[in-house]
## 1
Amino acid sequence: MEPQIDADLYPILEAVSDPEIPVLSILQMGVVRSAHHSDNGILVEITPTYSGCPAMDVIGDDIKKALKAAGFESHVKLILSPAWTTDWITPKGREALEKYGIAAPLNPDADKEALLGNKRIVKCPQCASTNTVLISQFGSTACKALFKCEDCLEPFDYFKCLK
Amino acid sequence: MNKHLVNYILGIADNSLILGQRLSELCGHGPSLETDIALTNISLDLFGQVRSYFQYAAQIQGNETTEDTLAFLRKEHQYTNVLLVEQPNTDFAYVIARQFLFDVYHQLMLEKLQSSKDETLAAIAHKSIKEVNYHVRFSSDWIRRLGDGTEESHQRVQQAINDLWIFTDELFHLTEADHAMIESAIGVDVSSLKETYYNKLNQILLESTIEIPSVEYFQKGGKHGIHSEHMGYILTEMQFMQRTYPNMTW
């Protein structure tokens, strides 16, 4: 599901970051589904990562602000379908997550094994060891679980797979 | 305006609203930091889902209705959540048992709601079930840990399951709105989920060394707005700001 974004709007939206994970732009996150010029200004459609994600209002405001700074009036619409999946995080986004210290989501089967504590497969973003244990299936935000590395002893967030 | 559709949506949403409110009471009071965060995360997921349902119901209802008036300005008898979700946070075993008994139902219901003829409801269900899959995983995991844990944890979770079991049957009762919505292929016939539900519970409880309670009489009423004594306290807390400072906004 490639988002439909008018080419000239791309750099503007690229500069808007996720308020909870500031290293990630909302485009890398896959939250923006479309952005088009229209007679009523720019129409932007965004989709929430999680239903209760409190960042959505802020993201909407940030988009409007960024577009306004570029001289555009805009409307932001929240859409639910198709539902967001972690597959929409771009390869660059995954890289940014890892660099920031958040382990990027695994595929669904591996994710299940990891979150049930059956297998040690989540890679520590600090030292790359897979000798890691689940501390909690729910982490600092709705989209993350909390892990600990048994080698470097650092706790870290793991971005849960959502499909 | 489709009265049955609005009532149907509110029936689903109220379950999540009241359970979410119950769980939010644990914010800062969970037995450990991790469970505290988990339970409040679940609460947040439920509130997020409720917002989608309420926004949709408000849009259909029109007039002055908003998601906030639906959440904060109805009277007790106008909430149609099941009795199960309003039961108190007696101890951690109760919190987990209540969550488990609801989550398994919630997942089965949403699975079906995804194919609703109503596109908005189908979209909300599609979004929500991904989150609820995590809830089921969390609560059934804890049922196993407590049930198959220490003597104390086993006894407490067995007690909680025994006490809350009487509220499970109501999940599968059909209201007037249910019947109307099933007929128009919008709603889920929850009565048909009963067998799968109990099979699933039995399987997990068996693994957890918890005995299945045998109950002859089940409690009901919430779906018709007849609530237990706990409901008034929940609403008092939840509606406090709107009742004290009418129309206040953030």
Note: Chain A has two domains: 4-88, 101-159.
## 2
Amino acid sequence: MGRWGYLYAQLFAGLSYLVAGVILFELLRVKKMQKRKAQHQGMTRVR
Amino acid sequence: MIDNISLPWSLRIIGLIALVGNGVSTALIRDRNHLVKPPQLGFATHLLRRYDCMLLLSWAFVNLLGYMTVLYSLSSYAVQVAGLTQGQAGILTAMLNLGTGLGRPCIGLASDKMGRIEVAAVLTVTNGIVIFAIWIPATSYGVLILFSLISGAMIGVYWMTVTPLCAEVAGLKEVPSFLSLQWLTAVLPTTFAEVCARMLDRSPH
């Protein structure tokens, strides 16, 4: 097996982690939006 | 251990250690279901309709593809590409586990201090970067040891953070139902990730 015999497996692993990270950053954005919305609704109710 | 006491006894000792460890852990487990009163559904379809829950399940699926590939390819890569001996490849796996032992408590502490989703997201991306920056160019024993230690500390980020992330995303009451979905999601990538990775390398390019 040559020097790059595992290249595709390595790319597969690396890209999997990068894509998974992007998904989690999207989740972070969604949760922050939900939090902001809840705070806004709370403030409206207080007024 | 295999050289000194033979393979059958090495396997028996591993089995005994696992039995004692799991036995003690099982005896120490306590649940708080009488206080939380979770619905404990085996297949909570209402969670599958929520965008945030689907994102967490997708993260689990894709993350485990990378995890299994690193875990099972590293030692064979060391032997077949870097030209190391089986003993050195075994030490690499041991270093990966050492990194895991050191890294997981640190991930837990960091998650509590800096936010669970934030830490999990940063570590997941860092895993990807470490693979591109260290593993792909690595051909020597020293660099592979470094990769094993760094990667070992972070690749298990899923196992370390999945339960608190479930609680954060779906709420404490839904944790048992959501974890049931998580384990179901984990089946396919943990079974087929390494097969997919090896098939990619064997396909004619």
Note: Residues 51-80 of chain B form the longest helix (30 residues).
